[in-house]
Amino acid sequence: MCRWIAYSGTPVLLSQVLFEPSHSLIDQSLHSRMGVETTNGDGFGIGWYADESVATPAVVRDVGPAWNNRNLREVAHHVRSGLFFAHIRAATGTAVQQSNCHPFRHGRWLWMHNGMINDFRLLRRDLAVAVDPALYPDIEGSTDSELMFFLALTFGLTDDPPGAVARMAAFVERTGHSHGVQHPLQMTVAVADGERVWAFRHSSEGRSRSLFYSTRVETLRALHPDAAFLQEVSDDTRLVVSEPLGDLPGAWNEVPENSYGVVQPGQDAFHAFRPDLEQDVIRG
Q: Taking the model in full, what pTM does it have?
C-alpha cells in the first residue's frame, strides 16, 4: 500500500516534518512498521499551499523512491507551508509513472489515498463512465486512487466533501458487489481545499488501514516541555498520518474505524462515516 502525511498549522519547512522525526515519512519509505509492505518505493509526491495569491497548490511528483531523491530534499529544505500533503507509493497493480503518483490536484483541491479498490480491473470501466464528462479529460493516470478523486468531484466534493466522499465510496461498493466482489473498497483518504483538511478511514470489511492524528499541541507541551518543535507551532497545528512519526508518548491517537475528521482552526471534529449503499448517485 502507501504511507502519507497531511499537515495543517503554523507554516514550517517541509523538511521539519518529512525528514527530521525519528520515524519520518522518508524513513517509512524504507522501514514502514504498519503498512502492508515494509518498503514504499514506487514514487512519491508532495503538494503544498503557498498563499492566497496563488490559485492552485504546488505539486511535485516523481517515480523514484523518496529516500534518495535529491530534488525532494532540496525542495523540502527551502519550501515553507502551513498546509501540505506528502505521499510515498507502493503500487497495487497500476504502472509506476509520474501521473500515478499522489497527491492529485484539481483546482484548489488536493487528494491522496492509501488502500485499493479490489479487482479494480473488473470495475474500472463502470466506475470511469460515471465521472462527469466535463471532468473526465483531466484524469491523467490509471490508478484507482485518482478515479476515486474524480468520482468524488463528480458527486459534489467542492460543495460537500464528506457527502461526496460517502457517495463515492457507496458507488464503488455497489459497483463491486454487482461484479461479485465481496469487499470492494479499502481506503484512508486525505483531501484539502487550502483552508481545511478532511481525513477518512473506511473499508468494506471494517478492517481499514492504519491512520492516526496528533494530540492537541497544548497538551503535548505540558507532557514534553523540552520538545523544541512544540514551542514553535500554534495550538491549531495538527498532523494526520498513516503511521506515527516517532515514539513521543501521548503524541498519537488512532482515527476510529469508519469515521472522518475535519482539521480547521479552532474546530477539529470527528464524525461517523457511513456510505449509504441504497442511495442513488447524486452528481454535484
A: 0.95
